[in-house]
């Protein structure tokens, strides 16, 4: 095994020198110093969720590249590593990029707290990205379905396609258009499918010297027998403001159930305040929504802010860098549910990363 690793390393160095290929990667570890779920208390928990610790590799040249993750999965103190999220790309001509493996697209993504969006395309397959001009990119992709092997169709999943267009408007921002057909779209921030087969959306994003903003609106259709029925309207808005070292971000996702007779509207909120002090950034995070970290919730969640499923969480913390390493530690506490079903939870999550 050591010989194989040595040979691979030498080949990588030779290829990098001969073809000007950039090699990079990062290692990330997630855990919790303390965790109380309303009933049980645990301390020093590694990999609270599966696939939390990841070793990522990136190899990129002018005409081709690849990336993959090594995910560490923990179950009952047994740790297993697996290679996932494999992506290969090649540019036969400068204007065309062909992607194989993990493909997808979204309108806009809120990134200040986590990678969230109400309309996300994801899957394993093939996609084409064509840069018509420096400001206009269009794409078309095919994937066999959510969480299914390459180029196969699962029993409860159909092959899907998606297409998009990103149009730059210079200083005026960017307009994006996205559509899909099939089980390849995730329509909620908890990534529930909502039983929808067709989705479409339009997004806009822009910024000034102090303010950044984005707005997305999407609609979905579901199949009922041989008919298509309009079932959901999804929207999200984000505004960010910076003044020196102070940062303020507000994000609001909204879902409206067109088929509901009552409690059709459901939404959540995220407020994040940061203040940078050198390489250290203290922050305060406030979230509300349906169920813990799901905000607009799944298909079964209805009502203003999730009704009886309302979740309210607070998280003061600090993040920063020490050389090539990064860290994030906070105190996450709050209530899940309202009334007699309310449950108090708290945790001390920790994330440590190192760039290779």
Describe this structure in words.
Helix content is 5%, strand content 62%. By secondary structure, the chain is mainly β. The chain folds into two domains: 165 residues, Porin (Beta Barrel), CATH 2.40.160; 90 residues. The longest helix has 18 residues. The N terminus is likely disordered.
Short description:
The protein is mostly beta strands and 356 residues long. Helix content is 5%, strand content 62%. The protein contains one helix and 22 strands.
Give descriptors for this structure.
356 residues; mainly beta; Porin; 2 domains; 22-stranded antiparallel beta sheet; 5% helix; disordered N terminus
Calculate the mean pLDDT score and round it: 79
Give the overall silhouette: globular
Largest sheet: 22 strands, antiparallel
Number of helices: 1
| Terminal Cα span | 22 Å
CATH superfamily of the largest domain: Porin
Domain count: 2
Counting DSSP E segments of at least 2 residues, the number of strands comes to 22
Strand content: over 45%
Q: What would you call the structural class?
A: mainly beta
């Amino acid at each position: 095994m050591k010989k194989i690793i040595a040979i691979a390393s030498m080949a990588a160095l030779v290829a990098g020198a001969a073809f000007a290929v950039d090699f990079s990667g990062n290692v990330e570890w997630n855990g919790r110093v303390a965790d109380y779920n309303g009933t049980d208390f645990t301390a020093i928990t590694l990999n609270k969720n599966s696939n939390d610790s990841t070793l990522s590799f990136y190899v990129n040249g002018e005409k081709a590249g690849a990336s993959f993750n090594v995910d560490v999965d923990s179950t009952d103190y047994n740790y297993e590593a697996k290679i996932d999220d494999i992506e290969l790309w090649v540019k036969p001509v400068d204007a065309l990029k062909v992607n194989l493996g993990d493909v997808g697209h979204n309108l806009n993504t809120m990134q200040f707290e986590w990678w969230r969006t109400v309309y996300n395309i994801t899957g394993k397959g093939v996609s084409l990205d064509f840069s018509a001009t420096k400001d206009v990119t269009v794409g078309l992709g095919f994937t066999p379905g959510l969480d299914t092997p390459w180029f196969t169709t699962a029993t409860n999943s159909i092959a899907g396609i998606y297409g998009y267009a990103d149009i730059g408007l210079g200083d005026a921002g960017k307009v994006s258009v996205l559509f899909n057909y099939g089980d390849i779209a995730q329509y909620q921030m908890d990534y529930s499918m909502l039983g929808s087969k067709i989705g479409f959306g339009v997004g806009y994003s822009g910024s000034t010297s102090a303010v950044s903003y984005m707005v997305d609106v999407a609609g979905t259709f579901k199949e009922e027998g041989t008919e298509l029925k309009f079932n959901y309207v999804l929207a999200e808005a984000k505004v960010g403001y910076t003044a020196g070292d102070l940062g303020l971000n507000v994000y609001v996702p909204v879902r409206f159930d067109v088929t509901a007779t009552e409690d059709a509207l459901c939404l959540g909120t995220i407020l994040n305040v940061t203040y940078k002090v050198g390489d250290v950034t203290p922050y305060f995070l406030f979230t509300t929504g349906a169920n813990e970290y799901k905000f607009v919730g799944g298909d079964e969640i209805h009502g203003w802010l999730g009704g009886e499923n309302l979740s309210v969480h607070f998280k003061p913390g600090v993040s920063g860098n020490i050389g090539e390493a990064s860290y994030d530690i906070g105190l996450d506490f709050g209530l899940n549910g309202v009334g007699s079903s309310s449950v108090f939870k708290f945790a001390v999550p920790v994330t440590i990363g190192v760039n290779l």
